[in-house]
From TrEMBL:
Belongs to the pirin family. It comes from the Bacteria. SUPFAM superfamilies: RmlC-like cupins. Residues 313-337 are annotated as: Disordered. It holds the Pfam family Pirin. Residues 57-157 form the Pirin N-terminal domain. InterPro entries: Pirin (IPR012093), Pirin_C_dom (IPR008778), Pirin_N_dom (IPR003829), RmlC-like_jellyroll (IPR014710), RmlC_Cupin_sf (IPR011051). Gene3D superfamilies: Jelly Rolls (2.60.120.10). This is Pirin family protein. Residues 209-307 form the Pirin C-terminal domain.
Length: 337
């Protein structure tokens, strides 16, 4: 595909950090334990509305005052968008290092291709888990034809130092495990909860669960007190035992909880993300996670030079150009701005 369609609709929800829509993306410094709450809190995170083409998406992590939840380093919530009359998601090949990407759909389909040769159609309640490790490139597109609606989340997990140079890999898991309670259907897409364990590979203690609640649900979830947690209300709103989380919002809950009570007046879908506080300090810029500015610059130079990152089949030599590095030195400093 020598001339891909321009990014439209929700495509950029995956790529304000990872695409050509930002000329000078900022570097994010994150990690360390000084800002990880050792006790329960209820902080509504100030999501950033990102205008990409004609669509708006919500960047919820990193955000002002909060850069990580466990090893979860990036949360974009996109849709629901009506893509019946446009190409939908069109994200050409781009690189990643030092992280895992999690594609989680509530509606629609995404065609994933990568430099390993993976060629997979991801649907709702299916795990698309890509481990970048030392280097990978991939593309994401709405298939032709595609469903009328597109809605989901793009999530990144920072790899710890011991795993960040691992070989790249891609996992597509259908039939994910879960559990049910009165008014709740839960799907565990990473980690473990309530006896259900996802087969998806993890490299640090963490959990990701999709919670589908009926109107009037009132349930209590078991939590790990050593994990910190956040809840994204991807559909509808909910009342947590510590306070509300509005539709489209995300609440950071800290750690020290052994359970979490959820109540809803109307049907709702929530994403529960958690993990042990990430001890390492790291640098995140564009699509790369590293440990120094020099490492990030080297990854960028390799991508620009056509080195290190193999081509994605079906795209020829086409690739998303890297934006310029920001002025100054990229340094790891901590978890808060």
């Amino acid at each position: 595909m020598s001339n891909p369609a321009p990014l439209q609709g929700p495509a950029a929800s995956l790529r304000e950090v990872g695409g050509s829509g930002v000329l000078h993306p900022a570097a994010h410094t994150l990690g360390g334990l000084e800002a990880a709450s050792a006790s329960p809190v209820h902080d509504l995170l100030p999501g950033k509305q990102v205008l990409l083409g004609s669509s708006r998406v919500t960047r919820l992590l990193p955000t002002l005052g909060r850069r990580l939840v466990g090893a979860w380093a990036f949360v974009d919530h996109f849709g629901p968008d009506d893509v019946a009359t446009d190409p939908g998601m069109q994200v050409p090949p781009h690189p990643h290092t030092g992280l895992q990407t999690v594609s989680w759909l509530l509606e629609g389909e995404v065609h994933h291709r990568d430099s390993l040769g993976s060629d997979v159609l991801i649907r709702p309640r299916e795990l698309g888990l890509m481990t970048a490790g030392r280097a990978i490139a991939h593309s994401e597109q709405s298939p032709v034809p595609h469903p009328a609606m597109l809605h989901g989340a793009q999530l990144w997990v920072a790899l710890p130092d011991a795993a960040r140079a691992t070989a790249p890999a891609f996992e597509h898991v259908t039939g994910l495990p879960g559990f049910a309670a009165d008014g709740l259907r839960a799907t565990v897409f990473l980690g473990s909860m309530a006896g259900a364990t996802s087969p998806g590979s993890t490299h640090s203690p963490l959990v990701g669960v999709d919670l589908d609640l009926v109107a009037g649900a009132d349930v209590e979830l078991p939590l790990e007190p050593g994990f910190e947690y956040a809840v994204l209300a991807s559909v509808g709103s909910a009342e947590l035992d510590s306070g509300p989380v509005p539709a489209g919002g995300m609440a950071y809950l800290g750690s020290g909880r052994r359970s979490l009570r959820l109540r809803t007046d109307a049907p709702a879908r929530l994403l529960l993300l958690g993990g042990e506080p990430f001890e390492e300090q790291i640098v995140m810029w564009w699509n790369f996670i590293g440990r120094s500015g020099e490492e990030i610059a080297a990854s960028r130079d390799a991508w620009q030079a056509g080195e290190l990152f193999p081509a994605v089949p079906g795209w020829g030599d086409e690739r998303t150009p890297a934006p310029p590095l920001p002025a100054g030195t990229l340094k790891p400093r901590g978890r808060e701005r």
